[in-house]
Amino acid sequence: MNGHGRSERVVVTGLGLTTPAGLGVSRNWERITAGDSCAAADPDLEGIRSQLSCRIDGFDATELLGGFAAWRLDRFVQIAIVSTREALADAGWDPESWDGSRVGVVLGNSLGGAATMARQTDAFAAEGPSGVSPMTIPMHMVNMLAGYVAIDCHAGGPNLVTATACASGTTAVGTARDLLRSGACDVVVAGASEAALTRFMVSGLSRMGALSQGNDEPERASRPFDSARDGFVPAEGAGVLVLERERDARARGAHSRAVVAGYGASCDARHITAPDPQARGIRQAVRAALADAGTAASEIEHVNAHGTSTPLNDVTEGKALMSLFPHGPLVNSTKGVIGHPLAAAGAIEAAYAVLAIEHDSVPPTANTTDVDPELDINLVTRRAAEGPVSTAVSTSLGFGGHNAALVLTTP
């Protein structure tokens, strides 16, 4: 294995976030810690049963990327590139000077260029084939997320997109860590992005019954683990982590923000949308991550839960956490603030877990005032809970029965 092995520690040296909570890591942490919800009534969703979303305010692709990039890239790629640039700068890497052949890119996504497809479908309906842009396919394709990011930062190593629905970001980070351990790469840009808040996509989610109908109080609609939860608020966003082997990071004098100590994955193999009511799949994934990290369940001090605010997910996941961690670590869900950014959720939440470790502080689960009586979990509500937080778990569950979990620790 080229001198590398399964036990080699992999660290996070850079973070980048572009979410409804703000542009950049510092703004995200400020708003997540304050528990200030980003949900709002969305005029673009008028006529749909659920008319709420969490959008990224103040994102100007022309200003941040230039007019040509803004024109030829779908929003899900734009926000990923901005997040990647922030993460690389944070890690102290200059893509103009590194050996790009040793740099991999692993990013998660589910729905591709949804906005592009919506526009081009309308153009086709109005003008026929000649009205469709020749950029339609490269702007829509899921794999172009990793492809365009690699072009932007000159990363010529392994390049792929993970698609495990709402577990995609967590899957990407775990896959990236394994590439580093195998010796295939020296640096991996890992994370996920999603920007699919179109009328068509939101209508599909609404028709499934997955979305909150709290249209009268948007800011309170996403309330994970609350007894009155009625669905999630759809969101967009991107989270990127720069991963390296610890000894390589140390050799170049880089700051290690956290260790990606363990990764586990599983599939319920039961139902396309509903989680296994016995929570066997997510428990299997978490146990695998703990075993991979060589960490006892009793050592976990914080869980950043998937916590979607849907009736089925939260009770299933909550009961899994009860059985896995009876000692009561601090649990939260940051979806009360940013909503549910679908495939990007796991990557964004992994970044938030890293920040919780760094700050010894667990942000509150916004809007949750009456925890589901079926759940005996130590849920952080109302205000942030101070640590210590040296060992954390981040969990993700996705349609198709996909489950993934990370164990993150202090360096």
UniProtKB/TrEMBL annotation:
- Enzyme nomenclature, EC number: 2.3.1.179
SUPFAM superfamilies given in the database record = Thiolase-like
| Ketosynthase family 3 (KS3) domain residues | 7-410
Q: Which CDD domains match?
A: KAS_I_II
- Keywords attached to this entry: Acyltransferase, Transferase
Among InterPro entries, the record links this protein to:
Beta-ketoacyl_synthase, Ketoacyl_synth_AS, Ketoacyl_synth_C, Ketoacyl_synth_N, PKS_Beta-ketoAc_synthase_dom, Thiolase-like
Disordered: annotated segments: 209-229
Q: What is this protein called?
A: 3-oxoacyl-[acyl-carrier-protein] synthase II
Record's keyword annotation contains NADP = no
> Could you give a single Gene Ontology term from the biological process aspect?
fatty acid biosynthetic process
Q: Specify the taxonomic lineage.
A: Bacteria, Bacillati, Actinomycetota, Actinomycetes, Pseudonocardiales
**Basic and acidic residues composition-biased segments:** 217-229
Which Pfam families does the entry link to? Answer: ketoacyl-synt, Ketoacyl-synt_C
Q: Which family does it belong to?
A: Belongs to the thiolase-like superfamily. Beta-ketoacyl-ACP synthases family.
Recorded source organism is Halosaccharopolyspora lacisalsi
- Molecular function (Gene Ontology), one example: 3-oxoacyl-[acyl-carrier-protein] synthase activity
Reading the lineage from the top rank, the first entry is Bacteria
